[in-house]
């Protein structure tokens, strides 16, 4: 059987670089093989795709229903000017928050399944995106820690994670839509997540997680900080240095990610398509 594309594992315990195909023109056989590779590797990197916005949305929709089709993750205003890196701009504060390890939409009633991300404008240095494999992190925990966290859960809130940076969206300004800042119940999610398609266990932690029921605030914060520090280290991490036109897709059910800092007087324009989670498998626990 002819090879449908070339797949090269990344320098980590997960992820792969995929070449030899065009994401805007996938036949059924190639798509099926690509989805299987995604479930195995959790992160796929496609250099030099230069997708149109419509093509990015169409590719993301192959993975399932969308949480949202396309959003700019950018420090550039619609008029082309760069937002001040300091001050009270909500967009900048959320961009800085995204530099902490997290999974998408854990603060929403339904956690996202995954995301397609593409680069349009990248700074000459910095601004990479890092991912961390929470499957391998769970597997590497000692049995005593696995047993300790087996029955524990944590609340997840964007208000909480941004407040740790001194960000109160109710007093800020800028063009941020307010997505994720909601007044509904604070979702409760298990520290150990079972992947609905592969059955593998992984850690569900990150900057939005807090307030583990049954632990004091200090105990909860210490445990979550220790788990993150342990989980997000080589060989369980990969950092991608972007070139304009690159596209990635990752499995939000088993990876954390973060942006790395850059000189924010320089523009960085990325496009994010968020794939909706299964309303049963990715739903928050009953608090």
Percentage of residues in helical conformation: 10-25%
Spatial order of the strands forming the largest sheet? 1-2-3-13-5-15-4
Determine the mean pLDDT.
95
Q: How many helical elements?
A: 7
The CATH topology label is Double-stranded beta-helix
Q: Which CATH class is shown?
A: Alpha Beta
Distance between the termini: 51 Å
Q: Give the CATH superfamily.
A: Clavaminate synthase-like
The major β-sheet equals: 7 strands, mixed
The CATH architecture name reads: 4-Layer Sandwich
**DSSP E strands, number:** 15
The whole-angstrom Rg is 19 Å
In percent, how much strand structure appears in the residues?
15-25%
Structural class: alpha+beta
Q: Give start-end ranges of low-pLDDT stretches.
A: none
Give the overall shape, derived from the CA principal axes. Answer: globular
| Count of domain modules | 1
Helix-strand pattern: EEHEHEHEEHHEHEEEEHEEEE
Descriptive labels:
single chain, about 290 residues, alpha+beta, Double-stranded beta-helix, seven-stranded mixed sheet, three-stranded antiparallel sheet, about 25% helix, about 25% strand
């Amino acid at each position: 059987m002819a090879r449908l594309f070339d797949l090269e594992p990344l320098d980590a315990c997960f992820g792969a670089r995929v070449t030899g195909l065009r994401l805007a023109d996938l036949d059924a056989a190639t798509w099926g093989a690509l989805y299987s590779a995604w479930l195995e590797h959790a992160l796929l990197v496609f250099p030099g795709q230069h997708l149109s916005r419509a093509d990015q949305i169409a590719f993301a929709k192959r993975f399932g229903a969308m949480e949202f089709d396309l959003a700019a993750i950018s420090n550039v205003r619609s008029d082309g000017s760069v937002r001040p890196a300091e001050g009270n701009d909500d967009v900048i504060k959320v961009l800085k928050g995204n530099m902490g390890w997290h999974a998408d939409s854990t603060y929403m009633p339904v956690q996202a399944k995954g995301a397609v991300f593409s680069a349009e404008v990248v700074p000459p240095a910095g601004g990479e995106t890092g991912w961390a494999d929470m499957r391998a992190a769970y597997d590497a925990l000692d049995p005593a820690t696995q047993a300790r966290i087996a029955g524990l859960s944590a609340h997840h809130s964007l208000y909480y994670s941004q407040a740790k940076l001194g960000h109160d969206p109710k007093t800020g300004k800028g063009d941020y839509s307010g997505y994720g800042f909601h007044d509904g119940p604070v979702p409760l999610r298990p520290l150990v997540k079972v992947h609905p398609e592969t059955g593998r266990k992984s850690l569900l932690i990150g900057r939005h997680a807090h307030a583990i029921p049954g632990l004091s605030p200090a105990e909860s914060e210490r445990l979550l900080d220790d788990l993150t520090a342990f989980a997000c280290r080589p060989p369980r991490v990969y950092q991608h240095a972007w070139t304009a036109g690159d596209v990635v897709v990752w499995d939000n059910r088993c990876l954390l990610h973060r942006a790395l800092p850059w000189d924010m007087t320089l523009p960085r324009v990325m496009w994010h398509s968020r794939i909706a989670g299964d309303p049963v498998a990715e739903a928050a626990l009953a608090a």
